Amino acid sequence: MLRNYIRIAWRNLLKRKVFTAINILGLAIGFGSSILIYLFLSYHLSFDNFHDNSDRIYRMVTEEMSDEIEYDASVPPAFAKTFREDYDYAEKVAKIVTRYGMVLDVEKNGKTNKFKEDVYFVEEDFFKIFNFPLLNNNNNVSLSAPNTAVITESGANKIYGTVDVIGKTFVLENDKTIEITGILKNIPETTFLENEVFISFENLVDFFEFAANESWGGITSNLECYALLKPNQDISSIENVLLELPKMHRPKSKNKHTYKLQPLSDMHFNPLYGGLDPVLLWVFAIIGLFLLTIACINFINISTAQAFYRSKEIGVRKVLGSFKQHLFWQFLSETFVISLFAILLGIGLAILFLPSLNSLFELELSWRSLLDYKFIGFLLLVLITVSFLSGSYPGILMSRIVPVLALKGKLNHNDTGGTKTRKVLVVAQFAISITLIAATLIISRQIDYAVNTDLGFDKESIVMVEIPADLENIKLNSLKERLAEIPGVKNVTACLGSPGAADSNWGTNVKYNNRSENEEFGIQVKVGDENYLNTFDIPLVAGRNFFRADTITEVLVNEKFGEKLGLASPEELLGKPFEANGGDVKGTIVGVVRNFHNASFTEQIEPVFIAPRTDWYGEIALKINHQSTNLTLEQIGHEWSQAFPGYIYEHHFLDERVAEQYQTEQRYLSLSKAFSGLAILVGCLGLYGLILFFVGQRTKEIGIRKVLGSNITNILALFSVDFFKLILVAGILATPIAWYLMEQWLQGYTYRTEIHWWFFAIAIVAIMVVTLITIGYQTLKVAVSSPVKSLRTE
User: Fold this and answer.
1) How far apart are CA 301 and CA 303, in angstroms?
2) Does residue 460 lie within any of the structural domains?
3) 119, 195 contact by CB (below 8 A)
4) What's CA 408's distance to the chain center, in Å?
5) Are the CB atoms for 524 and 606 separated by under 8 Å?
6) Could you tell me the CA-to-CA distances from 601 to 10, 446, 466, 744, 755 in Å, in that order?
């Protein structure tokens, strides 16, 4: 029976090749998009699920309460030792500290090769908490001895050209000779670790003293602390006990800490602590569902529209003894055949566009994942669900046709049913497309607003160049002078970090006007020399710039600092004593600068101070002439390399660094545009099929209208007006939905664009134009033909 159903289904589909092709292509696009989204979601959902006892692994994090709550994926350096020794909750506790851009000198064939790598300094128990085995499948990774390191297989191949590196050495930062004691298997991409070199924690004191010491005085985002808890621990009880620690170790701090335990499974999906917002995954899952829904709507619309022309076939089948259920399953088998071809084509499309997805998100998703049993199960589920949903309603309609009326040719379109349902489905299809287009426009507008709005400083044509730590003042001044003499360089400043680059932010406590206690709020540190304001074009609103100095005696603050203090004007700040970083910074406020964005638009502008301090400088910023960029960069690189022959020269443009803060949004915007385009394409395929059917049905009517004097415009309007009415209804339904969704998304931005009515008007008009083009193509073919031909059409 099933074989007979499929054979007949195949014959019927071949009779209507155009409609079959439209259905297959529409479903294939829906299937292909869903497959890509499935791979994308599976990738993110598989993060760090391969560790033994992963349900007992936690990261220690901090909620900081000053004038507002901040969230840090870290704890003070002393926390790990205290939690390990003073409490009995954990089997293992370990810290891991990231240091960026460290120089590794490697001897190879009598030549020294230099590599710039981000490295981890890890405590001994880190590899006992997590499962990152050695290449020989041994889990006994040892880094207890100083000057030792382990490296991943790919890292060894990159740096040494071989994995046979046990006992080999490298020189770290032109200072410490480190020996390789183990080779790790390549770390899975689906884990929180990103670097490939792990060095003994004992060496950290030489490169980052604050994180190496047992201090409760502050937090650095470079340090993370993990624990493998003993079985059956009550997390809320532990967190309640940890409330004692700030009282014991930070009793006078205005910045109140609360230490929390974050499950390993939550790390990748908690945006408060730097993870991915899970809402994004839901959004793309829903988009995949939308695409499949639109494809199913196309199928149902075209199938129900054709019911009238298949009425005689159904009448004959009923007369010959077919029951309703036979006709229902016959039509369902046709749907299954179409879906099967579509899903095979969809797999091909997914494989074809997988490299583009990988390139966009810098992933390494492989088509081999399609051989996974979970994916095969997903595919079968989608195939059965789509076949049943797409085929059920048309099958029910056809099985209800009265055979007597069908054989006598007295059926009309109302007898076959589905007209109202078709309109509802077309409205739903248009509404989905309008929602996606409006959302894409608003997301694009917000990102453009964030990147191109005045940030309070100049980011164009500014080159950032790193300099070694603890640089001698004489050598730094000499380098700055030589760089300033380069013809293409307009301004040069040494600084701790540029404005607008969140990765260089450093918050600390502040005391104003010799008050007895620190303020309730913190302040951001922006250390720079006397050229800082000119280089970044940050205007003063009161007072003057500080004079040239190597240590801090004079400071600048921004307007926000005065606002936080409740002062009426910036002038009130001038001449007042200023103290920050626990008394390490002391000076007099001599100027107030205009507020500037020191982080992304998702965050409030914070109080900032700017002051000179040579031993804190980490970069040189150069304002260059964009007309001679390449030559200028070459000369900058030459001077820098002359000054620091033992290091690797790199430069970054500030505007690119600022734009990187919106890289995630840019990627998702690109994906949104692609899926919106696909939704419109699938919708157009369905419209084309419907118009092809309706024009064929009304060919004689078109001929009569032409004989009676109708022109092409009148005929085009005849077919367009009904669809335009449906688009307007869809727009009315989609607008509040899209507005609400985008309003919720924009809540994440402190500084945001407005949602204007014309976003939705553009979306509605865009759908109308696309519909008009789709209708016009097929209608014009008939409208421009001879009316004699049209009148002869049966």
Assistant:
1) 5
2) no
3) yes
4) 61
5) yes
6) 57, 10, 26, 15, 16
| Most trustworthy range by pLDDT among 54-63, 109-118, 250-259 | 54-63
Q: Are residues 38 and 141 located together in one domain of the fold? A: no
How many whole angstroms separate alpha carbon 673 and alpha carbon 443?
Answer: 10
Residue 139 lies in a domain: yes
**Phi-psi bin for 162: left (phi > 0), alpha (psi -120 to 50), beta?**
beta
520: Cβ contacts below 8 Å, ≥ 6 apart: 66, 67, 254
d(CA 292, CA 679): 9
Q: How far apart are CA 734 and CA 729, in angstroms?
A: 9
Regarding whether 768 and 623 lie in a shared domain, the answer is no
Strands 585-593 and 554-558, by their bridges, are parallel
Measured CA to CA, the distance from residue 59 to residue 95 in angstroms comes to 10
Average pLDDT over every residue of 78-96: 94
Identify whether the C-beta of residue 467 lies closer than 8 Å to the C-beta of residue 724.
no
Say if residue 399's pLDDT is above 90: no
Strand runs (DSSP E) across 45-110, as ranges? 57-65, 69-72, 90-108
Q: Which stretches does DSSP call E strand in 482-531? A: 489-495, 507-508, 510-512, 523-527
What are the structure tokens assigned to 664, written together? 């995630």
Axis crossing angle, helix 324-361 with helix 278-305, rounded to the nearest 10: 140
SS3 136: coil
Q: Identify whether residues 482 and 589 lie together within a single domain.
A: yes
What are the angstrom distances between the C-alpha of 46 and each of 265, 357, 470, 546? 9, 18, 42, 53
Domain that holds residue 590: 469-646
**Angle between the 712-746 and 699-707 helix axes, to the nearest 10 degrees?**
120
- Do residues 366 and 43 touch, judged by C-beta distance below 8 A? no
349: three-class secondary structure by DSSP: helix
Closest by Cα among 187, 181, 201 to 141: 181
Q: What is the DSSP-derived secondary structure letter of residue 71? A: E
Contact 439, 668 (CB under 8 A): no
Task: Specify whether 547 is located in the same domain as 527.
Answer: yes
Bridge partners for 602 per DSSP: none
Is the pLDDT at 494 greater than 60? The verdict is yes
Helix, strand and coil content of the chain, in percent to the nearest 5, comes to 55, 20, 30
Q: Quote the CA–CA distance of 572 and 543 in Å, as a whole number.
A: 10
Tracing tokens 């989204």 back to the chain, one arrives at 37
Q: Are 778 and 445 in contact (CB under 8 A)?
A: no
Q: Looking at the structure, do residues 423 and 507 belong to the same domain, yes or no?
A: no
Distance CA 10, CA 2 (A): 12
- From 37, 18, 682, 674, select the one nearest 295 (Cα to Cα): 682
* Alpha helices by DSSP H, 320-418: 324-361, 373-399, 403-408, 413-416
Mean pLDDT lowest among 41-45, 141-145, 663-667, 688-692: 688-692
| pLDDT tens string 334-374 | 778 888 888 889 999 999 988 888 888 888 888 777 778 88
Q: What angle do CA 117, 635, 539 make, to 5 degrees?
A: 85
Ranking 12-16, 448-452, 477-481, 558-562 by mean pLDDT, the lowest is 12-16
CA distances from 370 to 45, 284, 373 (A): 16, 19, 8
Whether 99 and 65 map to the same domain: the answer is: yes
The residue among 718, 713, 731, 716 whose CA lies nearest residue 767 is 731
For the chain, the distance separating the N- and C-terminal CA atoms, rounded to the nearest angstrom, is 36
- Would you say 91 and 228 are in contact if contact means Cβ atoms under 8 Å apart? yes
- The tokens for 572 are 């009130």
- Enter the tokens of residue 650: 């790199």
Helix (H, G, I), strand (E, B) or coil at 366: coil
Q: How many domains does the chain have?
A: 3
Identify whether 457 is part of a domain. Answer: no
Looking at this protein, which amino acid is placed at residue 294? Answer: I
Residue 43 contacts residue 208 (beta carbons within 8 Å): no
Rounded-to-integer distance, Cα 411 and Cα 413, Å: 7
